[in-house]
Amino acid sequence: MSFWYEIWSCAGALVDTFSDVANPGRISLKDAVETNFMVPGISDTITTHIQGMYNARIMADSDTRLWLHTSDGLFTTNSAFRHLHMAVAFCPFARFYWVKFIPKKMSVMFWRFLRNAIPVDVRIQDCAINLASGCVCCAHRNIESMDHLFFRSEVATFLWDRFGAIFGIHRLNYSCLKDTIWAWFNIAPRGS
Predict the structure, then answer these.
(1) 8 near 1, Cβ under 8 Å?
(2) CA separation (Å) from 60 to 33, 67, 78, 113?
(3) Where are the alpha helices (DSSP H) in 60-176?
(4) What is the spatial distance between Cα 45 and Cα 51, in angstroms, rounded to a whole number?
(5) Where in the numbering of this chain does the Reverse transcriptase zinc-binding domain appear (predicted)?
(6) CA atoms within 13 A on the CB side of 84
(7) DSSP 8-state secondary structure symbol assigned to residue 23
(8) pLDDT at position 158 over 90
(9) pLDDT surpasses 80 at 173
(10) pLDDT at 166
């Protein structure tokens, strides 16, 4: 547990309580306690105050966990959502596939595709499982990857050539499935 940045006292994180003090560096709470809070860069008066905060926490009747992502240390689902929402990388496709006119199972499938979480042969082999790969959509049993299965296999090329052209999407103009889908969402008519 970080001595300076995490909420271990009832007063909140020290970085917020003593904002005018320079960062003392990476030191754990355990290390600070072992040195009786004599940390370089922290004055004696602040050290005394921190010792009092620590002793008050030790003497408290209850020993409860404090949630790092709120100022009062209390966990709420709202604070967890806000923390996770900020931590998740922005997905430019999300506004296209989490919509009402697309069935949820298709949205989940597309979400799994973007996260490389569809269990095709190549992904299973990435988990150190020996597996002879062979795409069931091809007569020649090519290696089954997500890009191959949904973009380069014989069935996929037939479907993309047949239906993509109707919406102005030509498979040969794109190098991979993600580029093709990005084009689909940006070129094809809305709701297609």
Answers:
(1) yes
(2) 17, 17, 27, 50
(3) 77-87, 94-97, 104-114, 121-126, 146-147, 154-159
(4) 10
(5) 75-160
(6) 6
(7) P
(8) yes
(9) yes
(10) 86
Displacement of CA 63 from its chain's centroid (Å): 31
Q: Is 50 helix (H, G, I), strand (E, B) or coil?
A: helix
Beta strand segments in the chain, E:
none
The C-alpha atoms of residue 118 and residue 72 are separated, in whole angstroms, by 41
Quickly list DSSP for 39-88: -TT--HHHHHHHHHHHHHHHHSS------TTSTT----HHHHHHHHHHHS
pLDDT for 188 beyond 70: no
In this predicted model, what pLDDT tens digit does every residue of 2-43 receive, in sequence order?
777 777 777 777 887 887 777 777 788 788 888 888 888 888
Torsion angles phi and psi, residue 28, rounded to 5: -85, 160
46 pLDDT band, cuts 50/70/90, is confident
How many other C-beta atoms are found inside a 10 Å radius of the C-beta of residue 100? Answer: 7
C-alpha closest to that of 72 among 27, 23, 17, 21:
17
CA gap 133, 143 in Å, rounded: 5
Residue 9: how many other CB atoms lie within 10 Å: 18
